[in-house]
Design goal:
The chain is α/β, with parallel strands linked by helices and about 800 residues long. Helices cover about 40% and strands about 20% of the residues. It contains 28 helices and 24 strands. It has a 7-stranded antiparallel β-sheet with strand order 3-2-1-4-5-6-7. β10, α16 and β11 form a beta-alpha-beta unit. α8 runs antiparallel to α10 and α13 runs parallel beside α14. The two termini are about 40 Å apart.
Amino acid sequence: MTRNILFQIHWFLGITAGLVLAVMGVTGATLSFEPEILAALNRDRPAAVSAQRLTVPQLIAQVKRQRPNAKISRLTIPTVPREMTTVSYQRGPSKDRVVERVDPFTGTLLGEPRGAEVLEVVEHLHRWLALPGEGNGIGRQITGFSAIALIYFALSGLYLRWPKRPLDWRNWFVLDLRKTGRNLYRMLHAVIGGWVLLFYLVSGFTGLWWSYDWYRQGVRALLVAEAPTEKHDGPKDAPVDLARAWDGFVRATGGRSYDRITMSVRDYGEVQFRAKLPDARHDRVSDELTIDGRTGAVIDDQPYATRPLGEDIVTSVFEIHRGAYFGIVGRIAMLLASLTMPLFTITGFLLYFARRRRKAALAQVVADATDVPVEQATTLVAYASQTGSAERIARLTADALPHAAALPITSLDHATLARASRLFVVASTYGEGEPPDNARGFARTMERDAPDLSHLDYAVMALGDREYAEFCAFGHRVDRWLHDHGATRLFDAVEADGNDDDAQRQWQHQLAGLGGRTDQPDWAPAAMEDWRLVDRRLLNSGSLGGEAWQITLAPVANAAQWMPGDIIEILPQQDVRRVDAYLAATGLADTSDNRAMLMTSILPTGAGDVATRKPIGHREYSIASIAESGRVELIVRRCTASDGFDGLGSGWLCHGAPLGGIVQARVRSNPAFHPPADNNIPLIVIGNGTGLAGLLAHLRHRAALGGAPATLYWGERHPAQDDFLADERQALCDAGVLADQHIAWSRRPGGYRYVQDAVGAHADAIRSAIDAGGAIYVCGSVQGMAPGVHAALATILGESLLEEMLGDGRYRRDIY
């Protein structure tokens, strides 16, 4: 809760004060080198008509002669011969300050320094955003508030990004520029924020000095001993004799050498002298004297050598603010830190907009969803969400499944879990393997509680960033906790790398295999490409089961690449007969535009507006061929929908799409079912029905590249009609790619009835292959085959070994 509150305040201040701080950072960086900028813009030197510089009284007299109505307020006298003297004065009753350079040899006024007006505007922007009222207006309050915000950013940012391994310096200072998108923005925001954190704290705390009187007085009271209140004689604007004041300064200092002397007229006729010591690291390393401008008497003499630390800090607040207190290195460091402020504004806004997009997507899902009370739901969809992505997918999941309700993972107590028969979890991982803020309580519950979940079937979608070492760690932690307490895994955890469109569609496809809705559009639409339907062959003529077709597609444009185990996503079209029936039933005009729209749309009940129809979602099929063939081969079971017409995907591929016509499709990587990196690892491939396609790709891959032999376990109805691709399988046996194949025929008396029976009958051979480092690949139906095969393998190898093999990639499943 604390973390979430701090984060909410952090981003709120970021979008309100971020732009102001960006302006203050750039202007502050400019002002930190103001003397050097002016020197670079004003390279002319004194005329040096005389070997002797004018004395200060002579300079004052020359200024008075040239500006008779000038009221001098400051005179800066450098001791370097080739540098100009500068004078500040007010003209008559005007309070506007004029700054001019003075030739120290002739006393000639040379006008304002070039660039001074621009730098004055920069200073006004920095101090009060150049708003009306100057230092007494709203601008000063805004910059003061922004200084407080800067302090909060530094401290809360330190807390929010505190790594799991704080002693590892790489977590604090190393930039990984291989990151992209939100990860890159977050890394720049966090890591560079760590670099400049100390400088921002210094800038913020010293910046408050000029914003709030109470703050300035408080710092003075804390650092400087309380001095007695001085009593002043005479009027506040008493006139001064600058020449006499200078003579008093010379007498008091006894001719000591200084780099620069600044004399400033103060109230009550006093003149302050700041004499910078030779080779001082900043301007406030100086002896400071106050002289009575009427008599030349010394009022106060404060040598730098005797200045206490607290008073030195108070005196040098400006130098600390711009980094000069720590010498040229400090100035450069503060300059660079100030220039990074726009970076935090930009990355902060990019992260904010990304978060807004996620919130908007979630709001749309919530608006469209039909809520089922948790108490009445037999299927629960729990989410652990940091930015709204997991919640969005969870609510879409609940909407796809019958009698399902979405709820935060923190609501999963014992009673709620006991009522449910199915649980789907969509869990984000935050930072370096940590749960989202709103799931930390459940994470502690997992450590503490050990409920009996043997009645529960479950699946997990883990969201994370692959650029972090602990990719999807919290989702996998939930997956292991559910499994370890007796719940049955419906299918292997689906990993999503960021906003992984492929993973979302894979999850959606898995839900369809469990009875989820198939009339939803794709949750994460993606561009399709043109493929040509080049061949279509019936594999099981006369079968009592559904027709199984071998479908061959070829890319129309560029050659496609894929790995064994990858998926092709097909964008189907409606059965023409279904569209005909819809037009007849609704009375909608049978125009070419309406028909084209209906062929690619989900058809609701009633006519409505054709233009508002939602598009048909994709259908997924395992690729049986290898990329070297240049063609994608599929094995597709033609299905019949509840309305009596062909199913969308299978009907389009097996019947609707014309041979030689165009099919919209795209290849999706499925790394969870890719082959082992070492082809010498023995393979056990297990599947049923059209799942042979996903296994066949691995066998063809071994045939092309060589490697250890594989053993096939496969199940279908009857050998007379359903022996798919028997000749090719036999050829693979003859070539040594297949060491053996064990076929289960569910409709033929004798032998193995189901593929799990064949697996169980060869327990010793399977155990030996796994002991030798073999891998198991399973492809086929999530209902019936997959849990049956898993149970048989668990009996042979033990559940713990299967879990270990899942973790290291030696047990892979593509089930649907």
